[in-house]
Structure formats: structure tokens, C-alpha cells
Amino acid sequence: KQWYQRRVAITAGTKELVGSIVMTKYNNKTYRVDDVDFGTKPSDEVELKSGRISYIDYYKKNYEIIIKDSNQPLLIHRSKTKIQGNTVERQIHLVPEVCYMTGLTDNMRSDYRIMQDLAQYTRQDPDKRHKALIGFKESIDESTEAVNLLTSWGLEMSPGILDVTGRQQPPEQILIKNGGTFPCDARKESFDNITRKNFVISSAEIRDNFTVVCTSKDIAAANTFLETVAKVGPACGIEIRGGNVLEIRSDRAEDYITAIRNNETNPKIVVCLVPNNKKDRYDAIKKHCCIDQPLPSQVLVTKNLNPKKAMSVVTKVVMQMNAKLGGELWSVHIPMKKVMYVGIDTYHDSGSQRSVGGFVASMNDLCTRYFSKTTWQPSKQELISQLEVCMTDALKQYHEKNGAYPDRVIVFRDGVGDGQLLAVKEQELRDMKTALSRLPKMPELVFVVVTKRIQQRFFLKAGSRLTNPGPGTIVDTKVTRDELFDFFLVPQSVGQGTVTPTHYNVLEFQTTLKPDHLQKIAYKLCHIYFNWTGTIRVPAVCQYAHKLAFLVGQSLHRDPSPQLANLLYYL
Predict the structure, then answer these.
(1) Are 277 and 261 in contact (CB under 8 A)?
(2) In degrees, to the nearest 5, what angle opens at C-alpha 279 toward C-alphas 275 and 282?
(3) pLDDT at residue 1 in the model
(4) What is the rounded CA–CA span in Å between residue 459 and residue 53?
(5) What gap in Å lies between CA 418 and CA 425, rounded to an integer?
(6) pTM of the entire structure?
(7) pLDDT score of 351 more than 70
(8) Are 501 and 489 in contact (CB under 8 A)?
(9) Which residues are designated catalytic?
(10) How confident is the model at residue 242 (pLDDT cuts 50, 70, 90)?
(11) Torsional class of 207: left (φ above 0), alpha (ψ -120 to 50), beta (otherwise)
């Protein structure tokens, strides 16, 4: 029994630590924990160039640190270095006692009080942030050494923040069923109340052709799900009712997969109710449903079906199911027709030495139907080498569905830093042009790099106070570059802290459109991401590309089935 309890403790401890980042107390270096060595302890000796020495003596001699627990297991970090052109992996052992954990654990993130206390420091409102900036400026001015250093570099700090002029786009009208419209909340630029209306542009006609897979313990939750589905689906305008339940013996991934494989009802979509967020089970279900047996799937944790949350959770799930099967939820009015919008993002695959690129292209004028494809490149490489193939396939699909090629192609490329703009222009943009040049008539091309992680912040003057600028605010003067066409867009409002704008760098603008048109399009596209009834930080095609690359890189590790290419199965 003791042996079993020890094995359980070792497994739990390893699972908790592997993947986390620790910082050493003695030199402030960070290391990723790749494993935990329970067979080695600080009292053991290690071979150095100067001879053999125990970990305890090593830390005492080099850092004057006394290790108190001589029996603790050691953390393992695996680093790769190149020696004479060959990659060599070396193992670094770390003593937990001299390491700090960094970041936040899942338990911390789920603790509302901890996150609320942290938010006081991490999410400062514009006034507090402004005061902190002025305080930093004053502390620099008071330091003679700092002033002299800046002067030697030919730099001088501005006495205050820069005044710039911006403009705000009007609130959007959301297009719903039968050509109707639904107004956005002008302050928050959200449309949460849309779910109370019969709003869906087109239903996927799911009816009772779906299956819920769950363990015998979760039969009650499955019945709650079906009852709630019957209420919220028709209210939204989605044709869904009934459904059947498949009971399995245990919550092992194999049981879910066997039930899906042997299901004789041949459903349009399968819903798996799972007891917790176990990653290997989720990965196995998604791998089976995206590769082995192409079938849209939904994985739902049963605790989210408690009476307080069931209605809102199931409403979102039913909307997702409709979108995954090709149904259209909502859109916005875009005057231009025959335009193909493309989103591209990269994700670094956690399970192999490769990175995955997600490519998503709109197939209709409403931007409610999409074609998707994935591509692979060497690990940590942001640039996508197979864009010519992706674009060619997307253009073929567009022609099949519309009977003509697009007049314009507008590409939004996410996941690229400022330092790679030239490389993107020389490789990815070139590949795009090669694919487009094969068409009977070359479409107009716009290629935009979208950057979310930026340092710039904008404040709106409101009398003596500073507040966040409203959604739809655009800044394209003073803080933009002379040699490039770029602009900043604030697509969202935030309830706490300072809003972060999104930076758009336009690398190609071979079009009859005006800059103002592109800015309006970018803002409009932030409204039509089907997982959120409001605006998101990037155009929807970018977020879809991110979701696709994330699913493939995190769970599938292989290309999904081409049979799913015209569905939003990755939502």
C-alpha cells in the first residue's frame, strides 16, 4: 500500500511540475522543468572538471548556500547546444530548495480572490498608469548617472506623454436572420443579448442527429444537456432537438473512441461529456474525430452543466455545434463583394520538432463560411514555406463555391514580430503573388501583419482625467512609421485596466481601396468570430487560423482530414 501511495504521489508531483518554469535564487536564471528525478538527491555526488563533489558541497562552496533537505528529488532541465555543427543534449539538475516557481498555476488562476488582488497591479487604469509613467520619468531625472547615460546615447526623455489625434468608427450593426440587424452596445461593442432572439442566419439542421457520449455517472448531466438544448436551440433559430445518449463504462479515452467508432446512428456531430480537463483524453478524442473518423466533435466538462451555468453554457455549445456543421450565426455589412479574406498564424508544436501553420480563407461575401489547411515547418520557425500551395487550394475552393475567382485578396498575418517583416515580405508575400499570378486575371492584393503584443497604449482625455478610448478608435499619425503604411486599432473595451490596441503593418497595398477602407474592414472583421458575442482583438480570420494551428499543434500533431476542410471543426 505504501509503495502504491508513493507512486501516486510521484506521478502527481511530476505532472504538476513538468512544463513549469523555475528561477534559481543564486543567479536569477530561468529553466523549464522537463522531468523530476526521484532517484537522485542533493547528497549524491556529480562529476565536474575539478573532480567529484556533492550537490550540497557545490552550493556551499560556490554560492554559500546551505541545502537543508538532503533527500529532496532533483529537477531536470534538458538544454540543447551545438558543438561543431552537431546538436548535443545535456541534462542540468536543479535543487528545488534553491528555485522559485514562476508564473501562475491553474489552481491560482481559478481562485477569484488571488486574481482580483493581482489585477490591482497588473491591470492599472489609464490614470494610474499615467502617474506611474510620470513617476518613472521623475526618478530618471533625479539620477545623474541615468541622465548622463542617456545623454551619451544622444537620447532625451519627453517631459510628458505624446498628444495624438485619433478617430472612432461608429458602432456596427450585426446582420441576423432574414436580413435583419441587431445593434451593438456602443460602449462595450458587444451583442450578448442576441442569443435571446431567433437570430441565426442559417441553421445546420442538426435536429436529433447528434450523439452524447458519457459515463454512467454522468447520465443525469447528459439528460440536463438534452433538455437545455431543446430550449435554447430553437430560441436561437437552430434546428436541434432530441439526440441520443451513449453510455460508456469508464472515462478512459479508449471507451469514448470505441463508442464513437461503433455508433450505428451515424450522427452529424458527437458531444463527449467528460469529468475533468484531462489533456491526454481530450487529445485522443480530437485526434480520432479529426483524423481517423472525420466527424465534428464537442468536448464538455460536466461540472459546467450545474443549474446556475447550464443555460448560458449550453447556449454557447449549441452555437458552436451549429458553426462546426457549416451553419451561419451572424455577420456584419461589408459593402465590397468578391473579396477573399485570409488569416494566417503559427503555433509551435509541443509534441515534435516542428511548428504548424494555420491557413483559413473566407468563401463567401458574409464571411461566414471558410476553407482551412495546415502546413508544417521546422521547430520555432515562424515563416510558413507552403503558402503557395495553401493559397492555390483556397482559390480553387473559392472558384468551386462562387463560380469565379475573387477580385481582391486581403491577407491578415498574425504571429510575426517586427524583426521578421522583411523576411515575410521576401518569402510569404512572394509565394502569395506566385499563386495569384496563375489566375486568368490577377486579383488586387493587400497583405497585413497583425501584432497584438505591443508596448503602445492610448489614453482618451476626459476633462482632467484619462480614460480608455472607445472601441473602433484608430490612430495613424505621429506614432506610426514614415517608411511604412501602418495604424493602430482599438477593437475592444475593457472593464478593468488599460485597453491594448492592435498594430497593423501593411506590407502590400496593390489595390484601388483607400487606407480608410482597410481600417474599416479590419474593425468589421473583429465582430464575426463565432465563439464570442462581441469584438475580439484581431480580425476573425486570424483567430480562426490561431484556433486551427493550436488544435493541430497541441492535440493532433498531424494534418487533419481534408473532409473537414470546409467546416469550423476547430472552434
Answers:
(1) no
(2) 70
(3) 66
(4) 58
(5) 12
(6) 0.87
(7) no
(8) yes
(9) 345, 382, 414, 546
(10) confident
(11) left
